[in-house]
Amino acid sequence: MESVGFKEWALVCEALGRGEQCVLLRKGGIAEGRAGFQFQHREFFLFPTFFHAQAGMTRLAGAEVPARREGEIELRFFARLEFARVVTQWETALALERFHILTTEVVRERFDYGAAPGIQVAFVRVFRLEPGWILAEERRYGGCRSWVRLPEVPAGVRFEAVCGEEEDAERARSLRETLSAAP
After folding, report:
1. C-alpha to C-alpha distances, 143 to 1, 27, 49, nearest whole angstrom
2. Secondary structure, 3-state, 5-72
3. Peptide bond preceding 131: is omega within 30 degrees of 0, i.e. cis?
4. 174 in helix, strand or coil?
5. Distance (Å, rounded) from C-alpha 104 to C-alpha 102?
C-alpha cells in the first residue's frame, strides 16, 4: 500500500467518515502544476486541514471545525477511489448536492476556478482507521497542494468500512445515474 495523504477540509473528512458524504470535489490550486489537479492515487489517507471558515462553507447546521491537537495531525480515515469523472456542465455539478456537504457557493467557486469551467468528482469508499494514526506536524505537509507523502503505515492499524458494500454500491449507482443524466 502506498502511503500518501489527500489534503481535505477536516469537516469533509469527518462527513466522509460518518457516511454523510461519498464524493470528493476538486478543481486544483496553486501548487498543482501545469496539468492541474488529478486523482493520481487509487488509495490514500484523508489528511485533514484546519481553518475556521470551512464551517460556514458547508451545509452542516451548527458545524464546528474539529479540535486540532497542537503539533500533531491525526489521520482517522482511508479512502479507496472507485471512479472519477470531470463534470463540465454546471447543472450536473449542482445535481451532485446529495452526495456532499459543501454549499452551492463553494462548488460554484471551484467549478469556475481557472480557464475552463468544470470540476473533478471522485466516488470514494471510506474506511475508519482503528486506532487513528498520529503524525507529528511537519513543514513538508504544508502548502497549497492536494497530495502529501506519508511515512510507512504503523503496524496494527485496522481498516473498518464506514458503509456496507450494498450501501456503497447503491450510492455509486445513484452517482453514475446523476452523472449520465448530464446534458
Report:
1. 24, 16, 11
2. EEEEEHHHHHHHHHCCCCEEEECCCCCCCCCCCCCCCCEEEEEEECCHHHHHHECCCCCCCCCCCCCE
3. yes
4. helix
5. 7
Count of helix runs (H) and strand runs (E) in the chain: 4, 7
Residue matched to cell numbers 507529528: 136
- Give the alpha-carbon dihedral of 10, 16, 22, 25, to 10 degrees: 10
pLDDT of 43-71, one tens digit each? 999 999 987 678 788 888 777 777 788 89
Nearest to 25 by CA among 33, 37, 35, 14: 37
CA distances from 119 to 86, 97, 104, 108, 146 (A): 6, 13, 13, 9, 15
pLDDT in tens, 122-174: 999 999 999 999 999 998 988 878 899 999 999 999 999 999 999 999 999 99
DSSP reduced 3-state for 141: helix
One-letter amino acid at 47 equals F
* 43 bridge partner residues: 80
Mean pLDDT in residue range 6-12:
93
